[in-house]
Design goal:
It is a single chain. By secondary structure, this protein is an alpha+beta fold. 58% of the residues lie in helices and 11% in strands. Helix 3 crosses helix 5. The N and C termini lie far apart (154 Å).
């Protein structure tokens, strides 16, 4: 009996058996998997940020030398689960699912538009430079159009002898009138006037009743129907 007890493995105690369960093992494995996934995603984001920074360094110098670049372009990499290199407020570059291909998008009123896609940094740099050049030309055309319209309007007014009328001004609404509450004396006088008015009305009603009661009574008496005696039938034989 003692030899068998020494050769058999010791049975787990109650506390150790409760600590090591299938659910506990599954939770431990899930935590390890989550930690590994987080490390992998951090490595992927780091690689994407590195490639976007390489593209930014390749085109930053040329774009900063463009006229009006400070007003139109602002290179910034958004830090998040999906990093993006913003060229301006409507154009940005992000990495594809393979983490090696650059994808250049532009936000339009009809949705997001894919302008270019390449895994070569030099090809994407050329695309970004062309985009910046078009944006600069669009800005110059818009400014020139504004100046042309203003000059045309000024010259037309000068030829016609017109003076630009000032913009109509909207009159401010009048301030609200303050309602002045009557004082104590005024309210007392109003009460007295109302009381005297009620007394006068009652007096007129009483005078009318006393003045017209006798004629009305005489007329009712004169027009009262006369009750004639009813003859009794003779029943004697």
């Amino acid at each position: 009996m003692n030899e068998v007890a020494r050769g058999a493995p010791a049975a787990p105690t109650g506390s150790s058996a409760a600590a090591v369960t299938p659910l506990t093992a599954a939770i431990h494995a899930a935590r390890l998997e989550n930690a590994e996934r987080g490390e992998a995603m951090a490595e992927v984001r780091g690689a994407q940020n590195a490639r976007l920074e390489m593209l930014s360094d390749a085109v930053r110098g040329d774009i900063e030398a463009a006229p009006g670049s400070r007003d139109l372009f602002d290179f910034a990499i958004s830090q998040g689960s999906h990093p993006r290199l913003f060229i301006d407020v409507i154009g940005f570059v992000e990495m594809a699912h393979d983490r090696r291909t650059y994808r250049f998008f532009q936000e339009t009123r009809h949705g997001r538009l894919l302008l270019a896609e390449s895994d070569r940094i030099d090809a994407m740099s050329d695309v970004v430079r062309q985009y910046v050049a078009r944006r600069v030309v669009e800005r110059e055309c818009a400014l020139a159009a504004d100046q042309t319209v203003e000059k045309a309007a000024a010259s037309y007014a000068a030829r016609q002898g017109l003076v630009a009328s000032p913009a109509p001004t909207v009159a401010a609404p009048p301030p609200p009138r303050k309602v002045r509450r009557p004082g104590l004396f005024t309210r007392l006088m109003m009460f007295v006037v109302e009381f005297l008015g009620v007394i006068a009305l009652l007096s007129l009603i009483a005078y009318g009743v006393m003045r017209f009661e006798p004629p009305v009574a005489a007329w009712l008496e004169a027009h009262q129907p006369v009750n004639l005696p009813i003859s009794q039938p003779n029943t004697a034989k």
